[in-house]
Amino acid sequence: MYLSIICFPLLGFLISVGFGRFIGRRGAATLTTNFLLLSFLCSCVCFYEVGLCGSSCHFTLSPWFVCHLWDPNWGFLFDTLTSVMCVVVTSISSLVHLYSISYMGEDPHLCRFMSYLSLFTFFMLMLITGDNFIQMFLGWEGVGLASYLLINFWFTRLQANKSAIKAMLMNRIGDFGLALGVFVVYEVFQSVQFETVFACAPYLADTRIVFCGFDFHAYTLMGVLLFVGAVGKSAQLGLHTWLPDAMEGPTPVSALIHAATMVTAGVFLLGRCSPIYEYAPDALGVVAIVGALTAFFAATTGLVQNDLKRVIAYSTCSQLGYMVFACGLSQYTLGIFHLANHAFFKALLFLGAGSVIHAMSNEQDMRKLGGLAKILPLTYGGMFIGSLALVGFPFLAGFYSKDALLEVTFAHYSFTGDFAYFLGCASAFCTAYYSFRLISLTFLGQPNGSKRNYTDSHEAPLLLGLPLIILSVASVFVGFLGKDMMVGLGTSFWGNAVVSFSGHTTSLEAEYIPQSIKHLPFFLTVFGAGLGLTMNRPTFGSKSALKPKASKLPSLSHASYTFLNRRWLVDKVYNDWAGLPGLNFGYLVSFKALDKGILEAIGPSGIALSLPSFVSRLSFVQSGYVYHYAFVILLGCTLILTLFTLQHTLFVWLDLRLGLGLLLAMLGLFPKVII
Amino acid sequence: MSLIHSLNLSFFLFLLGLWGIYLNRKNLILVLMSIELMLLGINMSLLSFSISLDDLIGQMFALLVLTVAAAESAIGLAILVVFYRSGHSINVDYINLLRR
């Protein structure tokens, strides 16, 4: 039954992609959705047995590569971490499947879409259930592949193609780091099985390893390299640029990628590798700082985005930053808990956004929406709940994970802890601001779009609305239900799935931090939410919103607005300083200068070009005059005699083969000079 | 007269023949004569070695070379005559037909 969690999506994918033509669009959609629901049911049983009853399950299906010490099997490990992830992934995925039936109902390629969704889910499940690094890597790459296919789903759109390539490439940079990390793991532990690696982790904690000529603490290196993988997949600062661009895919895809599956893989990796990270405090510091910076960066960028989906995308990025710095401060369980909560309300927000877009004839610009609360009450309610959960309003999902997370962060009493706390608080403020800016611009105020959009718009149909309702309920209750189980003091829920040293965790210290600090995020959130609601109503609630107002702003505000709106100019920096020089290098240096230059010159075309003229020049020696021939004969005889006589003195410093090679090289390099 | 002297003489004759071939730009007969001179030098050295080593084989070779030289000069002169008949000249400068 555990295996069927993984098999159902695969089966759905195979049938849908292979026989989609025969079972039809609705058939494929129904089939995959039902398979996903079955998978979700199995996951629930798995969660009950593994998580609640505490009987984790590990089985090996068959050998995969068996070679000496190299031992990855097709093995599946269902511990608490996996079971939590399974429930999250399959529940969100089945809701997204359900949602897609209606949302993508008019699309002629529904079969393909549903099959890709199932494929995505399958690879994600492969990632989280693998019992070794290699199988996890399979899922890791597979998720990247599926995201490529899904972002690129409307493959006739140029922008979608570019975004998909960008997503693939950015992920591939991270995957390279992950692969290196796995190599280091194998080098140190001589195994890639999780059980072996994590069981040996305490005993090899002092290992040092030479990497790129430098002597590193093996675990720190391992942790940093694995984290590079997580950076790529979880869109942390540095490799985050693909995530907002991934909005080019259909909205359910964004919901799947951003809420439950792909981006959470990085956090899952950190949680999974916690036994290694616990022995590598330096790597944890890197993780925490990068996570905190990401949270802050994405939150500030989200403030001024005008695209409905982009705002939510940056909020994902920001929340991932929270999860990652939680992991970086050894609060893996909090990170995973926030992941689970976040999955529900972020899926809710995305599906709500999809509903809005669906109702408004694919209008995504928030400046052209507004006043939708009366037309789309269900969506409005869903997105309002989602936003409240996102900003951590008390007693909703985000509150139990996010505020708890900030508390333990402050109680960490280290530089990274304080750093993460203050950036986290600033991000909480920004999160509240942009969430309610989104609500305000989209649902409140006056209509700003064209009349046609408004007269045509209608509330979501049942299949579109049902996932919203379910996710709204989940967003309200999941945090409360899961809190004591997952991050309560002294909970035995996690068992051995996640390791964190008692010295590193601060869940008890968090109870003793000053009240003001505890309340700070809440006040910041309320303040930010109020600001978001009030500031955007009068300014943007009227027709004047469409007019460019930037020119009226003072130059500093204008500059900062532009800076934030253009995402801290990271894309520009990447394009100008990495992309363009890279392409130029590829074309000018490695293609023109090396491949078509030097290698061609001393290779085929150089010889082919230089030889005829060289030979014709050589044929001038054939003058036809007898005395010339006689002279050459004389010269040759003399030369040979000289060489034979002086060979011992001559060949000491002249290697004939070397001379021949030099001659050939010169022939190729300077054809015109020689000839 | 020691071996060295006679060898010097033969070497000098040989070189003289060689130089004659490539320094001479005009006359084909001079080329043939130079070849004869080279063969003469070779004969000289063969005979000197034969005397010096007290071995008859050298003299046998010398006789052989003599006949070869005679035959060769006969054929060479014949070619020269044919060449003169076709080209009305025995100037070496005109014998560069081989080039094309």
From TrEMBL, chain A:
Residues 64-114 form the NADH-Ubiquinone oxidoreductase (complex I) chain 5 N-terminal domain. It comes from the Eukaryota. It is an enzyme of class 7 (translocase). GO terms for molecular function: NADH dehydrogenase (ubiquinone) activity; NADH dehydrogenase activity. It is found in: Membrane. Residues 131-419 form the NADH:quinone oxidoreductase/Mrp antiporter transmembrane domain. One of its GO terms (cellular component) is membrane. InterPro entries: NADHpl_OxRdtase_5_subgr, ND/Mrp_TM, NU5C-like, Proton_antipo_N. Keywords: Membrane, Mitochondrion, NAD, Translocase, Transmembrane, Transmembrane helix, Transport, Ubiquinone. The keyword Protease does not apply. Its main location: membrane. Its EC number is 7.1.1.2. It is a multi-pass membrane protein. The keyword Electron transport does not apply. PANTHER family: NADH-UBIQUINONE OXIDOREDUCTASE CHAIN 5. Core subunit of the mitochondrial membrane respiratory chain NADH dehydrogenase (Complex I) which catalyzes electron transfer from NADH through the respiratory chain, using ubiquinone as an electron acceptor. Essential for the catalytic activity and assembly of complex I. This is NADH-ubiquinone oxidoreductase chain 5. It comes from Chloropicon sp. RCC4434.
Automatic annotation (TrEMBL), chain B:
GO terms for biological process: ATP synthesis coupled electron transport. It is a multi-pass membrane protein. It is found in: Membrane. GO terms for cellular component: NADH dehydrogenase complex. Keywords: Membrane, Mitochondrion, NAD, Translocase, Transmembrane, Transmembrane helix, Transport. Pfam families: Oxidored_q2. Gene3D superfamilies: 1.10.287.3510. One of its GO terms (molecular function) is oxidoreductase activity, acting on NAD(P)H. It comes from the Eukaryota. The chain crosses the membrane at residues 6-23, 30-51, 57-84. Belongs to the complex I subunit 4L family. This is NADH-ubiquinone oxidoreductase chain 4L. It comes from Chloropicon sp. RCC4434. The lineage of its organism: Eukaryota, Viridiplantae, Chlorophyta, Chloropicophyceae, Chloropicales.
